[in-house]
Amino acid sequence: MPVDAVIYGPANPSGLIDESGIVDPPDVGDAPASQGIERRDIAGAWAIQSTPNPNNCTVLTTTLELPPLTPPGSVLISAVNYNAYDNGDEGFRLTNVSTQVVTLTNWIATDGNGEGTLNLTGTLQPDQSIWLAKRAITFTQQFGFKPDYEYETDTDPDVPDLTGSAPMLAPGDELAIREGADNWIDAVVWGSSGQITDTGWLTGWIGSNVYAYTGTLATTGQILYRKLDETTGRIVSDTNTALDWANDRTDPVLGRKVMYPGWALERFWQTAKVTDTAALTVAIAPMARPRSVENSTRSSPSTSRSETRRR
């Protein structure tokens, strides 16, 4: 089928087809001697011109409006696995916290000028999250599910590969996502040596860096992740500070929390709810817990289910 065409003359006896692929009447008649036919607009209107002007292309131009840039904070870096159990399961998670579908074409993730610059792709539905892993096979072994993309080596043919250079995600590092040349969307800086200026974004982080929660729990394998609202389970509003992250030691309610590979935290964020009449036993651990479990097991005819939550 022709990309473009013009049929001219008094009729179309030969059955010529136009740019739409069908036989149509002529677009314009025959031009007398010393005259010509010219296209008058981009829609395809033709006319006989007594004074041909072959270099006038202004009537054939149109203005294309570029799609609007994505507002910063619409997509957030919602988790970073940098202190991996095994070399290869490092990665990070992106979450669309907006109400609009976001296309990641012409987006990058970077951990610094001259370091990793990863080309992103795909689309994110509202509230959708995706994991991007260094090596899909190693990630799957640790997390129990496949990542959405892998970026260092093609280890799993079922997981799409991203192009570009892999971010290091070192113990002290930074990570930012950007649309186009200068539309910075989000960033996180962690550890003692991470610096937002290393990414090229001079104002994308405020105050101290995020640190893994150091208490009685291991820092190896600990994932940095954002605080979740206790009522909705959604990510709390972004302030570009360490206070947005659940590893925050200063917040006794939404902070001082950890997550490790394999934990389905969002899935079980809301506690189980029942409407049946039941007896409720509150056991204050650790002293009362063994007896409570024993009594529950003895009274159960077949199976017993329990739910605990650490605050």
The main sheet orders its strands as: 10-9-4-3-13
Topology as H/E string?
EEEEEEEEEHEEEEH
Task: Decide which structural class fits the backbone.
Answer: mainly beta
Strand content: 15-25%
Task: Count the DSSP helices.
Answer: 2
Q: Low-confidence spans: pLDDT under 50, at least 5 residues?
A: none
- Percent helix: under 10%
How does the major sheet shape up?
A: 5 strands, mixed
Multimerization state: single chain
Mean pLDDT across the residues is 87
In total, the number of strands is 13
Give the end-to-end Cα distance, rounded to a whole number of Å: 68 Å
Question: Could you walk me through the main structural features you see in this protein, from its secondary elements to its overall organization?
Answer:
The chain is mainly beta. It has two domains: 1-64, no CATH class; 75-244, no CATH class. Helix content is 6%, strand content 18%. The chain contains two helices and 13 strands. The strands form four sheets. It has a five-stranded mixed sheet, with no helix packed on it. Strands 7-6-11-12 form a four-stranded antiparallel sheet, with no helix packed on it. Strands 1-2 form a two-stranded antiparallel sheet. Strand 6 (107-110) and strand 7 form a beta hairpin. The longest helix has 11 residues, at 289-299. The chain is elongated. 26% of the residues are buried. The model has no long low-confidence stretch (mean pLDDT 87).
